[in-house]
Amino acid sequence: MFNSISGIFTGRTAESIYIETHGIEWEVFVPALSADRFGAAGSTVRVYTWLYHREDQMKLFGFLTPADRSLFLDLIKVEGIGPKQALKILSGLDSKALEAALEAGDVAQLQSIPGIGKKTAQKMVLALKGQLTGLHDTGRPEPAKKSEFDDIITALIDMGYDRKRAAETVESIAQSMRTSGIDPTAKEEEIFRTSIVTLSST
Questions:
Q1: How is 21-37 classified by DSSP, letter by letter?
Q2: Do residues 9 and 40 lie in contact, with contact meaning Cβ atoms separated by under 8 Å?
Q3: 59-98: per-residue pLDDT in tens?
Q4: DSSP states along the chain
C-alpha cells in the first residue's frame, strides 16, 4: 500500500493538491490548514498518504507528516466520523491543538471546529482520550531510546495497532531471534509479518 508520494507540486484547489510523478498527476485531498504548507508550484514535495477505496469511489488523502496521518486514522475510528468529516476536523483545528484538546477532554475547544456539535465532541473525547497513536507534544512521553525497528513499529501503528503493544511485540520477536542466534535486522519482513499475526491474535 502507498506510504507516501514524492513528486513535483503542480497546483492546489480549496481541498486538494496536485503532485506529478513520472508523468502521472495525482489529486490528493489534504486538510485546508496544511494545503499552503506543501510548498510552491514546481517544488519537490513529499506527502504521506492514505487510500480510501470503495466500490463507487477512490480517493487519496494526504498529510504533511506521519503523525498527522495517524491523527486522521484515529478520528475515523470514532463512530459517525468518516474520512471526509475527519479531513474537515483537521481543516478546522491545527493538529497539535486538536491532540491537546482530545487529551485534555476539552469539549468546548472541539466544538469550535465548524460542523462539530457537543455530542460529536463528547464521542471524540470518549473514544480517543489517552488513545492517540501519533501525538506531537501533548504530554505523552516518547520512548527515551528509539528502537532499531522504528519503521516496523510505525507501520503497525499506521495499521491501527496500539503503539506500546506494537513496540513490545516487535522487540519480543527480535529478542527471540537473537536468542536463537539470528540477526533480527536481517529479518525485518519476517518480524513485520509475525508481529501482525501476534497482535491480531491477542
A1: ETTEEEEEE--GGGGGG
A2: yes
A3: 999 999 999 999 999 999 999 999 999 999 999 998 889 9
A4: ---EEEEEEEEE-SSEEEEEETTEEEEEE--GGGGGGS--TT-EEEEEEEEEEETTEEEEEEESSHHHHHHHHHHTTSTT--HHHHHHHHHHS-HHHHHHHHHHT-HHHHHTSTT--HHHHHHHHHHHTTT-SS-SSSSPPPPSS--TTHHHHHHHHHTT--HHHHHHHHHHHHHHHHHTT--GGG-HHHHHHHHHHHHHT-
Chain position carrying cell 516496523: 152
Domains of the chain from N-terminus onward = 4-63 (2.40.50.140), 66-128 (1.10.150.20), 150-200 (no CATH)
Q: Name 28's bridge partners.
A: 17
Say which residues have a Cβ less than 8 Å from residue 183's Cβ, sequence separation at least 6: 177
pTM of the predicted protein model: 0.65
Q: In angstroms, rounded to a whole number, what is the distance separating the alpha carbons of residues 109 and 198?
A: 38
Length of the chain: 202
- State pLDDT tens for residues 128-137: 988 887 655 4
